[in-house]
Amino acid sequence: MQRRNFLFLSGAGLAAAGLTACGGSGGSGGGESSSSEVEVFTWWAQGSEKAGLDALVAQFEKDYPDLTFVNASVAGGAGSAAKDMLQSRLQAGDPPDTFQAHAGLELTDYIDAGQLEDVSGLYEEYGLTDAFPEDLVTLLTVDDKIYSIPSNIHRSNVVWTNVAVLEAAGIDPTAVPADVEAFIADVEKAAASGVTGLSVGTTWTQVNLLEAILMADLGSTSYNGLWTGETDWSGGEVTTALEHFEALIALTNTDRDGLDWTDATQMLIDGKAAYNIMGDWAVASFQQADLTDGEDFGYFPLSGGEEIFGFLADSFTLPVGAPNPDGAKAWLDTISSQDGQVAFSLAKGSIPARTDVDTAEFPAYQQTAIDSYAQDAICPSLAHGAATPVAWLNEVSDATSKFTTGASDVAGYQEELATIAESNASA
Ligand code: GAL
């Protein structure tokens, strides 16, 4: 199953595969309550992420005035606290009506544990199969069943810049570094001007940085092969990427482990940092801070020459035993509808997963993401659930934290990453 999904994602042209989306019965949930409350579990608890959730809720209230949204959000970027809490709730037989997850292998464990209903029937009922890109539906399909519905698509491999800080450091803010080496040289130059060269936060944001470097240094084919066993984690190209990671971590703020992504982004907003590498939910916080695209902040994908879209999609589920399965289906209807997808992405910095909506009025940044998603090579995000099951990501996160806190060197880190890949690929 894992292999099939990745073969698809890593195929140069995302080759056409037979759609099997309509094979299921549509989940019905197992709960008994017919309450009007719909408990929605996310990690969009604060700031621009909360604004994104609010946009969805407003649409939901319009679509289903008789239902009451219950906010079960747990703060912490990338679900850093939410995922453990969710696991406990599912294991205790206390699922929310629906929860946020990612399209891709992150759902593997929940599916294998029998914790998710097949919602492929809703794809038919809501007319989603043709509304989403074919490759996305294929990524979501596991043994002819589909266990979640995407609300949007985010890009993970974006470098964000503070234009004034770059100018003060003598760096042309419109110039895009040709490769990771050139980027490091610019970050060094920025740091020499007295600011933090590259802001970063706690472990998951460091993993986000790592994946962006791996994509740029290895290119899409080799990067995608990291998750299928086709690329050797012990090889020289990974060593180079880890050396680049080491060089960039040395140019980051030393208080990183106590910061979430929002704090690292705030350093850029406040002119305390020149660069930040983060998924494109960051653009929503620039918008919230009233920064102007091109004047106050800039962006480019970290690249080694090839144009790559670091892919992830937020996706909602119907847990087995949800107390209000009909309410959950209503939520799934709203988040997958044309209006829901547009309202959410405008507030969230993402792009709609649906291809049949009008995005002409979307801001400039999102236009670049729409073009890139359509044209560039697609690489699944590690930090955000597209590339691996949760256990593999957790082990990479632990090894990364060890490395960035100085408890291992490049050779030791690489050896650990290789061992983790080997044990998880064969799991
Ligand atoms: C990602 C999620 C995004 C955003 C980000 C930061 O995992 O897909 O929607 O919320 O975490 O928290």
From TrEMBL:
Keyword Membrane assigned: no
Record localization: Cell envelope
Superkingdom of the source species: Bacteria
Main location: other
Pfam families (UniProt xref): SBP_bac_1
GO cellular component annotations of the record: cell envelope
Keyword Glycoprotein in record: no
Keywords: Signal, Transport
Role description: Part of a binding-protein-dependent transport system for a sugar.
Similarity comment: Belongs to the bacterial solute-binding protein 1 family.
Protein name (database record): Probable sugar-binding periplasmic protein
Protein source organism: Brachybacterium vulturis
